Every structure is written in structure tokens, then in C-alpha cells.
Amino acid sequence: MDFTLWDIVRNLITGLQWTLALSLVAFAGGAAVGLLVMVMRISDHGLPRNLARTWIDLFQGTPLLMQLFLVFFGGALLGHDISPWAAAAIALTLFTSAYLAEIWRGCVEAIPRGQWEASATLALNRYEQLRHVVLPQALRIAIAPTVGFSVQVVKGTAVTSIIGFTELTKTGGMIANATFEPFLVYGLVALGYFLLCYPLSLSARYLERRLHAAA
Amino acid sequence: MAYRFDFQPVLAHTDLLLKGAFFTLELTAIGAVLGVALGILGGVSRAWRLRPFAQVFGVYVELVRNTPFIVQLFFIFFGLPSLGVQLSEWQAAVLAMVLNLGAYSTEIIRAGIQAVPHGQFEAAAALAMTRAEAFRHVVLKPALGKVWPALSSQIIIVMLGSAVCSQIATQELSFWANFIQSRNFRAFETYLLTTLVYLLMAIAVRLLLNWIGRRFIMRNR
Amino acid sequence: MPLLRVSALHKYYGDHHILKGIDLTVEQGQVVAIIGRSGSGKSTLLRTLNGLESINDGVIEVDGQYLDAARADLRTLRQTVGMVFQQFNLFPHLSVGENVMLAPQVVKKASRQQALKLAQQVLEKVGLAEKFDAFPDRLSGGQQQRVAIARALAMSPKVLLCDEITSALDPELVNEVLAVVRQLAADGMTLVMVTHEMRFAREVGDKLVFMHQGKVHESGDPKVLFAQPQTVELAQFIGMQQ
């Protein structure tokens, strides 16, 4: 069977859509969990703070591939087989949460102590201080590094090809095997990621410059 | 019915896990030395805008940083043979790690060089040093010192990322984990212990790099 | 009964004994000026009064509420005790009006309309009603500090703590802030201020507290103490300031 260039590209685009979908799910889920982990990480209490720190250290100190395997095979142990898509979404969400929590903690800690104190003095409790005074300011400086990290999430999705999720890399692997054109196919796969990631990298850099120009 | 964990079938293969761990460490060591060396070349080219290297490194950095490591690995291992470049599994793994780390460390080290006050360079020039001598003796070490923690983190990221090299049958740690679980059918236990080994390696490499940083790089600060 | 009473207050930072048994009373409507060298514990004392610093021993009683090393209902306490800082600490992401409206809305659950009205009133009081929509970085230091005072007043505190509120200001901006404080005192607000403004302390203060090495070294009527300090340390301190 012969593949035209268009056949290859068409199939890769389908794979690319799954890469995009997984990236979006992982990023949204990771942001939600990451916010929680970040709040725990900056807590006054030792227990949540240490739990959050352990969470971050575990996910930053082990390979994404292993995290993926543990979710994939761990789900099977709990009695129900877990699809590659679900395993990929869960593992990448957890992975993303750890990194975003750490990035955002840095942004929150960059807000001067006096802002916490001034709002404490006005009888706001710690949650209200965070919600109304610190987070809105931290958000401004968090945007650039968060967009920057989204590139890592998109690239991280490529690892899920190993557990059989047919995103861009997996699709590329199958086509490369069928066409015996690995140079062309992997080149196109790389191009696909580049098209997703480069605009994100550029925006992150632009946002960072704008923030520094404003400061 | 509760699942009964059994780590014995994994521990029986401890020798394989250790063998894999050491190979991962070897790959990481070679990748780190060559990758940081490449990053120094790239960093100074970019920081000092040395034509045409600055442009070449600029394109290289963007290409590498905006594509996944595993795709770079596949491109090198499966794609390059069409150009007549046939690399073994470990050579492909090392090349991918060096190129990947080289791109990130180019940007990290560039920032470090730019953070060294220009007066340092001028003082060296006033002492009749050439640009290369000034870089080598006056700029490089403080620049590395400023970014050593970031560089250390990146080396660890590359080490952990090398787990996907099992996909081209490089015989590093995750390769042997795959092998063991295919024999004992204890996938979860096998990967859990393997993950633990990676974690310990990450901690050990971090400590080692911190020590190297204190002992050799940031000594004068 | 005094509005604020501190007794046998101790505070440590690690091994460092910062406050060594402070006793202090503040009557309703009194203006208390706390003076002393840097490191004498005066700012720390002020910060314990609304729980910004925890205490290791002793009791603080404000308007019938107790605060000690073991327990503190800071939420209630801080609605009674307002504070203004040396560095203003306005919220840069909020306009002047929003800075003032935030706490009444969040803490006291005031409606937007109520908070708006309140904010206009207190900003009027500090002479900045027309700056309602401005952002803090558009204001001079003196104006920022007056907004900070208005922000504290919006919570209707019974006591207002002022921590060196003119120290970060250019000299020509000091008086506009002191004028506001003077007016507050005249209106009967209870004020506890750590200050370097000796003339202001003498003219407006009802009570002077001189802190030295973590203790209240001398306290009393400012006019008397400035004229005839009872201790060498206070005499030296006053001498240095002139």
C-alpha cells in the first residue's frame, strides 16, 4: 500500500488533535490541582505544607514515564482496567500540578510581606488575604512562567505514546513503520510539536519582557 | 478482593536494576559534560552575539526546546540512518541527551554570562587579555556560579527524561524495568521500585552537583 | 477601665529576648507616643497589639478581649485595632477607593453601596475624596499614607496603631500626614504611635512611653518628661534627637 505525502500529513493531523486535547486536559486539571497544592505549600501548618512539598518533590524527582506506568498499571490493580487516554490524562495532570504549584509558590512569595500584614491588620483571614490581595498581584507575574511551562506539558504528552495513546508521536511511529520513511515522518512529527510549542514559547517571552518593562 | 503486593519477584532482579541504574548514570555523566560544554559555546555565542554562531545556536535552541525529547531520540535513531548515519542505541541516547541539554544550558549559561558585570570584562581587557582569555579566566566561572542551581536542575531533568530511551532499546534503568516486568508479570511493583531508584538517583545527583558547585564553581563567592 | 491593657508581656525571637515584661495601659481617647532607639522593642510591642507578632507570655486586653500566648481571636481583635505602616502597604492592584472598600466588604460583609459610601466618608476625612479612582502608584508618599489611614478608619477601629508612619516620607510630606493624625486625635480617636517626631509627641501626645532594651524605661506626661527626664537614658535620647 502506498502512502502519499497527504496521507501521512492527514494522519499526523489527527494525532496532533489528540496531542492538543490531552495537553488542554492536563493543563486545566494540573492548574486546578496545582492551585490546591500551592495553597497547601504556603500554609502556616506543618502537615499540609510538608504533604505539598513531598508531592512536588516526588513528581519533580521521578520520570514522567514512570508516573505514567504507575497510573496505568496501578489503575488495573484497583480492579478496573484504565484506558491509555485516562492514564495519560491523570498522570499528566498530576505531573503538571507539581510544577505549576512550585512556579506559583515562587510568584506568591515574590509579593512583599507587607501586603499580607496590611490585609491581616484589616482583619482579613489568611484565605481572604490570599484571595483578595496576594493572588491578584501574584497572577500578574505568574502568567509568563505559566505559559512557558505549558510548552513542557505539550512535550510531555509525547511520552504517553509509550502506553499506547495514539497522539502525534504514536501516530508518527505507526506511519514510519508502514511507510519506511522515518526521516520524513519524524521530521513532520517534530514540525507538528514545533507549531504547537513555538507560539507558546514566543508568547511567554513577550509576556516576560512586557512585565519587566512595566516594573 | 484485595490485591496482594509482592515485591520479591522484583527484588530477585536487583542486579538488573542496579546495572540499569549505573548505565543511566553513565549516560547522564557523558550527557552532562558534553551538554554543558556545548551550552558554554552556545551561551557565549549568544551572549556576545558572535556571528554566525549566535544565529546558528539561536535556531538550534528553538528547535530543541520546542520539540519533545522522545521525538528527537526517534529522529536520531530511526531517521538519521536514511542519511547514512547509523548510531547504536547508546550512541543515539547520548547524542539526544547532549543535544537536549546543550540547548537548555545555552540559554541558562547565556543568562549567567549576561549577569556578570561588564566591568569585569573591561578590567580583563585593560590587563591586555584577549576576549577568549577574558572569557576563560574572568567571565566563565562567575557566570556558571550564578546559574549553577538552574543548570543542576536541568541535568536532573535530562537524566529523568532519559527513561524513554528504553524505547530504542538503550539498556538503561527503565529498559531493565520493562524486561523484569515482562518476566514476573508484576508491572506495578516493578515500576514502583524502579521509580524509587530514579528518585534516589535524582537526590544523589543533586547532592553531587551541589557539592561540585560549592567545591569548584562557587568557591569565590 | 482602660481601653487597652498590656501586662507582663514577653516576646522572644529564638534566644533573643525582645520584650522583657511590658506593662502598659491606654485610656479611651488617649494619644500614646512610644519612643526609643531602634532595637529597643518599640515596633515589636506595637505589632503584638494586633497579633502580627505572637507573644510568649503575658496578656493583652483590648476592649474586653483577651489575647495571650495560647489563644487569640485575631479576627475580632483586628476589627477593634487598626494599623498604619511605615511603608504604607497599599494594595497596588486596587484603586484608592477599592483599597478602602475591600475589608468592609470582605470582613464585615457590607454591601457595595455601603462600602462605597463609607469609603467616600473616610477619604473625605483625610482630604483625598477626589483621588477615589486613582491607583496608589499615582500618589505621592504623603497621599498614600493618608489613604492607608483612611483604609484603617473604614473598619471603625477603637484603637489605631501607627508604626513610624512618617519615617518613609520626604520631609515636606510629613506635615500633611501629621495634620490628619492631629485631627483624628482631636476627634477623640485612641492612638498608639511609634514615632520619631518628638515635637509632635510633645504637642499632641497625652502619654509618652520610652522603651529601652525591651522594657518600658520611663513613661508619663510628655510635657513633663521632655522637660525633666527622670533617667539618664531618656535624657540622652532626647538630647540626641535635637
Automatic annotation (TrEMBL), chain A:
<feature type="domain" description="ABC transmembrane type-1">
    <location>
        <begin position="16"/>
        <end position="204"/>
    </location>
</feature>
<keyword id="KW-0813">Transport</keyword>
<keyword id="KW-1133">Transmembrane helix</keyword>
<dbReference type="InterPro" id="IPR000515">
    <property type="entry name" value="MetI-like"/>
</dbReference>
<dbReference type="InterPro" id="IPR043429">
    <property type="entry name" value="ArtM/GltK/GlnP/TcyL/YhdX-like"/>
</dbReference>
<dbReference type="InterPro" id="IPR010065">
    <property type="entry name" value="AA_ABC_transptr_permease_3TM"/>
</dbReference>
<feature type="transmembrane region" description="Helical">
    <location>
        <begin position="61"/>
        <end position="79"/>
    </location>
</feature>
<feature type="transmembrane region" description="Helical">
    <location>
        <begin position="20"/>
        <end position="40"/>
    </location>
</feature>
<keyword id="KW-0029">Amino-acid transport</keyword>
<protein>
    <submittedName>
        <fullName>Amino acid ABC transporter permease</fullName>
    </submittedName>
</protein>
<dbReference type="InterPro" id="IPR035906">
    <property type="entry name" value="MetI-like_sf"/>
</dbReference>
<keyword id="KW-0472">Membrane</keyword>
<keyword id="KW-1003">Cell membrane</keyword>
<keyword id="KW-0812">Transmembrane</keyword>
<feature type="transmembrane region" description="Helical">
    <location>
        <begin position="85"/>
        <end position="104"/>
    </location>
</feature>
Automatic annotation (TrEMBL), chain B:
<keyword id="KW-0472">Membrane</keyword>
<feature type="domain" description="ABC transmembrane type-1">
    <location>
        <begin position="21"/>
        <end position="209"/>
    </location>
</feature>
<keyword id="KW-1003">Cell membrane</keyword>
<dbReference type="InterPro" id="IPR000515">
    <property type="entry name" value="MetI-like"/>
</dbReference>
<dbReference type="InterPro" id="IPR043429">
    <property type="entry name" value="ArtM/GltK/GlnP/TcyL/YhdX-like"/>
</dbReference>
<keyword id="KW-1133">Transmembrane helix</keyword>
<dbReference type="InterPro" id="IPR010065">
    <property type="entry name" value="AA_ABC_transptr_permease_3TM"/>
</dbReference>
<dbReference type="Pfam" id="PF00528">
    <property type="entry name" value="BPD_transp_1"/>
</dbReference>
<keyword id="KW-0812">Transmembrane</keyword>
<keyword id="KW-0813">Transport</keyword>
<dbReference type="InterPro" id="IPR035906">
    <property type="entry name" value="MetI-like_sf"/>
</dbReference>
<feature type="transmembrane region" description="Helical">
    <location>
        <begin position="190"/>
        <end position="212"/>
    </location>
</feature>
<comment type="similarity">
    <text>Belongs to the binding-protein-dependent transport system permease family. HisMQ subfamily.</text>
</comment>
<keyword id="KW-0029">Amino-acid transport</keyword>
<protein>
    <submittedName>
        <fullName>Amino acid ABC transporter permease</fullName>
    </submittedName>
</protein>
TrEMBL record, chain C:
<keyword id="KW-0813">Transport</keyword>
<keyword id="KW-0029">Amino-acid transport</keyword>
<comment type="similarity">
    <text>Belongs to the ABC transporter superfamily.</text>
</comment>
<keyword id="KW-0472">Membrane</keyword>
<keyword id="KW-0067">ATP-binding</keyword>
<keyword id="KW-0547">Nucleotide-binding</keyword>
<feature type="domain" description="ABC transporter">
    <location>
        <begin position="4"/>
        <end position="238"/>
    </location>
</feature>
<dbReference type="GO" id="GO:0005524">
    <property type="term" value="F:ATP binding"/>
</dbReference>
<protein>
    <submittedName>
        <fullName>Amino acid ABC transporter ATP-binding protein</fullName>
    </submittedName>
</protein>
<keyword id="KW-1003">Cell membrane</keyword>
<dbReference type="InterPro" id="IPR017871">
    <property type="entry name" value="ABC_transporter-like_CS"/>
</dbReference>
<dbReference type="InterPro" id="IPR027417">
    <property type="entry name" value="P-loop_NTPase"/>
</dbReference>
<dbReference type="InterPro" id="IPR030679">
    <property type="entry name" value="ABC_ATPase_HisP-typ"/>
</dbReference>
<dbReference type="Pfam" id="PF00005">
    <property type="entry name" value="ABC_tran"/>
</dbReference>
<dbReference type="InterPro" id="IPR003593">
    <property type="entry name" value="AAA+_ATPase"/>
</dbReference>
